[in-house]
Design brief:
This protein has 299 residues and is mainly α. Helix content is 78%, strand content 0%. It is globular and about 55 Å long.
């Protein structure tokens, strides 16, 4: 390796460490605003884009955005790139809380010159899948409320929707799954098992298909355990889809300040190996080092 190559390696190693340190520092409330205002200047992001390449560039640029702006960035590219990235829409809209949805909708409008997220979803998707996405994007899910009596009624409605499968029943199904609180849905799923003798996720998988089905299943998984949902998506992206880089990058970055430690734990419990191990097996070079730095350990 000549001197120029060595300097390039050292520079990129330093960039990984710098951005990782930034992510740690930006969690401190009293300095986070100042840091983010400093580092999010266009010239710095442009410098990363100009001097890096491929997936390593995607990681480093992605780490520069606050969570809401990163979600907005991913949603924009999912709908305005070549084709619609339905899996990205499903992952983000099925898993975010009401405050997170409000924040990335605002960021979406600001970043994309007044574009409205709901309008873009409406124009880029269709059918009951679109209806459910639009419902989730409202960010009006009930919070902290659970009524055992209503859970039994919800279970009966869900069971009927799985049996009859008309357009009206699809609407009722997505209204319940997209609007009821997680606590309410948890009880409804238990009641559904009692009423039908079947797990609701299996029933949805058997009765429906396509992206509408995938979205409903994602909601169910998030209700049950959100870290397990992301662990599953990471495993699927690495082992079933031939290492789907965009999905892996997006999950690691978007969850790095929220629940990545729990995701790592669920990944190891479910698949008998660490997330760190699998990333190291499939990646190499600075891209590998950047992802492992986000992963933060082999526990």
């Amino acid at each position: 390796m000549n001197t120029t190559q060595k300097n390039a390696v050292l520079k990129q190693n330093a960039q990984v460490d710098t951005i990782r340190n930034y992510r740690c520092l930006s969690k401190t409330p009293e300095i986070s605003f100042t840091i983010k205002q400093t580092v999010l200047k266009k010239d710095l992001v442009s410098d990363l884009k100009d001097n890096l390449s491929d997936h390593f560039k995607e990681v480093m640029v992605g780490l520069m955005y606050p969570p809401a702006l990163y979600d907005a960035h991913e949603l924009w590219h999912a709908m305005k790139g070549a084709g619609t990235g339905e899996n990205c829409l499903i992952e983000i809209l099925a898993s975010r809380t009401n405050p997170e949805i409000f924040q990335f909708k605002e960021a979406y409008s600001m970043r994309n010159y007044g574009h409205d997220l709901l309008q873009d979803i409406y124009s880029e998707t269709s059918g009951h899948f679109r209806d459910a996405l639009m419902n989730l994007a409202q960010g009006v899910r009930q919070e902290g409320y659970a009524d055992p009596g209503m859970a039994a009624q919800d279970a009966m409605v869900l069971w009927e929707a799985c049996q009859r499968k008309t357009g009206e029943h699809k609407n009722i199904l997505q209204m319940i799954l997209c609007n009821k609180s997680y606590q309410q849905l948890w009880m409804a799923f238990q009641e559904f098992q009692n009423v039908s003798g079947q797990d609701i996720m299996n029933a949805i998988t058997e009765c429906y298909e396509g992206y509408f089905q995938e979205l409903l299943v994602a909601i169910i998984l998030c209700v049950r355990d959100k870290p397990s949902f992301f662990a599953y998506k990471l495993y699927q992206a690495m082992h079933e889809f031939g290492f789907h880089n965009k999905t892996i990058i997006r999950i690691l970055i978007s969850r790095s300040e929220i629940d990545l430690m729990n995701i790592r734990k669920r990944y190891k419990e479910r698949y008998g190996r660490t997330l760190f191990h699998d990333i190291k097996h499939f990646c190499s070079g600075h891209y590998e080092r950047a992802l492992l730095a986000i992963c933060s350990g082999d526990a």
